Amino acid sequence: MRSTVDTFDDLLGVPYVHLGRDPRTGVDCLGLVLEVQRRMGFKVADPVPTYGVDPGRAFAENWAASWKQADSPEVGDAV
User: Fold this and answer.
1) What is the pLDDT of residue 46?
2) Alpha-carbon distances, residue 23 vs 17, 68, 72, 76, 78 (angstroms)
3) Can you give the pLDDT at residue 43?
4) 22 contacts 15 by C-beta, under 8 angstroms
5) Quick count: other Cβ atoms within 10 Å of Cβ 31?
6) What is the pLDDT of residues 10-48, one digit of tens each?
7) Cα–Cα distance for residue pair 41/39, rounded to 1 Å
8) Are the C-beta atoms of residues 79 and 73 closer than 8 Å to each other?
């Protein structure tokens, strides 16, 4: 099995494209990681949808929805 570094090396020279997910046309940092994972045999889904929505807003809304309110935080709690 090839190493992760070797798989990344295969993608050297692919141009940076904001929200890019296709190494034939260009990728952003997430697109690069997703492509390496796919090439290594992992089944991955893009966590930030890019179809017809502002990806920054979609990411922020998903991130904010995952938080829970801490009504009575105590020392040592992660808040």
Assistant:
1) 72
2) 10, 37, 48, 44, 38
3) 85
4) no
5) 24
6) 999 999 988 888 999 999 888 899 999 999 998 887 776
7) 5
8) yes
Q: What are 15's two structure tokens?
A: 């141009």
Residue 54: predicted pLDDT: 64
Residue 29: HSE in the Cβ half-sphere, 13 Å Cα cutoff: 0
- Give the DSSP letter string of 12-53: TTPPB-TT-EETTTEE-HHHHHHHHHHHTT-----SS--SSS
* pLDDT average, residue stretch 50-60: 63
